[in-house]
Specification:
Radius of gyration: 11 Å
Shape: globular
Distance between the termini: 19 Å
Helix content: 55-70%
Strand content: under 5%
Largest sheet: none
Order of helices and strands: HHHHH
Number of helices: 5
Length: 67
């Protein structure tokens, strides 16, 4: 079964020169959860996606794959 890459959190973190650990601290989330989001193993819910966008100073659209 092919895993779909649904979000661009990893890419945006790299563009902003931020780490998974930094994001976990900003969101007060376990680093393991952030790792699952970054690797597209699981997806954050809509409310969390909005928080991630705010922390990274990007739009939600910037975090989602549209292709």
């Amino acid at each position: 079964m092919e895993r779909k890459l649904l979000n661009r959190i990893k890419v945006v973190l790299a563009e902003k020169n931020k780490s998974n650990k930094w994001l976990s601290e900003q969101l007060d989330k376990d680093p393991a959860i952030i790792s699952k989001w970054v690797t597209n193993t699981t997806q954050p819910n809509v409310e969390m996606l909005i928080q991630i966008a705010k922390v990274l100073n990007v739009s939600v659209d910037d975090l989602l794959r549209t292709e």
